[in-house]
């Protein structure tokens, strides 16, 4: 789904609308921070980061127990002011980084840190700048694994990069999900959008198993499904972008899918309708995911810039590279499964 001319124009006016000067800080990419500056010349986030770094260097901490709450309140009020005055930026895909930082990421962060206690490994394999294609396994009935991979990169990578994920058409047809998907940086899973993002130096996420992986039964957990026709490999070859395989272990246990009411799913316009030990038996309570312990491991990148243009015309070359990515993820999953003990601790 693409934005119409009127909506695109409105986004442009929001991005160009005059207001306070922009924050003087720069990101790890060397780009100017997009948030408006306060009296100090920095946005609230960079002011707080500077204060924390100064206090840490001096070996002092604030003795005011209300300081964290006051900082949160100030940050929230500043965010609300920006929403009311239009002093925020939205790119051509609908990505709203200000909303992600202050609303969407904080909503799912407790799941990452406390409920699933996720351990992120191999973050050094993600470049600090430039385009790259992150390719992962997909499972768990609902796409929490994709969200957690994105949050791991945003929170724990030194450059705090945003993962621009390619999502299925269904995500852009649901009433509440569609606008949130756009605002959080997702776009349609098509080669054109993927190439535009990669050429712009963005980090792009793709889940080749699609609904075949997301809706597979619990009896087939951690067995990767087919990776389609290698469309993601063709995108990487066209743009010369490295492919970073990522293995997620733990998501398979959050909703153990023991049945699939396919007819009901088709009636509701869904690819499947899951039956788990708690859903739909317990109603809304059955939608609470189980607190499995997760590991997300980013594997070493697979370079594609040494392939010539003829590789795109060679189906075997595309197939071999697709198979290499899939095997890398599957081997990492088997190794992590062999290392872990209990699923829930």
Provide structural commentary:
- The protein is of the alpha/beta class.
- The chain folds into two domains: 73 residues, no CATH class; 200 residues, 3-Layer(aba) Sandwich (Glycerol-3-phosphate (1)-acyltransferase), CATH 3.40.1130.
- The protein is 40% helix and 10% strand.
- Helix 4 crosses helix 5 and helix 7 packs parallel to helix 9.
- The relative contact order is 0.12.
- The N terminus is likely disordered.
From the coordinates shown, what is the CATH architecture of the largest domain? 3-Layer(aba) Sandwich
Most strands sheet: 7 strands, mixed
Shape: globular
Strand content: 5-15%
The assembly state of the depicted protein chains is single chain
Distance between the first and last residues' Cα: 41 Å
Number of strands: 9
User: How much is the radius of gyration in Å?
Assistant: 21 Å
What order do the helices and strands follow? HHHHEEHEHEHEHHEEHEEH
The helix tally amounts to: 11
State the helical fraction. Answer: 40-55%
Which structural class do you get from the secondary structure elements? alpha/beta
**Taking strands numbered 1, 2, ... along the chain, how are they ordered across the largest sheet?**
1-9-6-2-5-3-4
Number of domains: 2
Calculate the mean pLDDT score and round it. Answer: 87
The named CATH superfamily of the largest domain: Glycerol-3-phosphate (1)-acyltransferase
The CATH topology name of the largest domain reads: Glycerol-3-phosphate (1)-acyltransferase
Poorly predicted runs of 5 or more residues? 1-19
CATH class of the largest domain equals: Alpha Beta
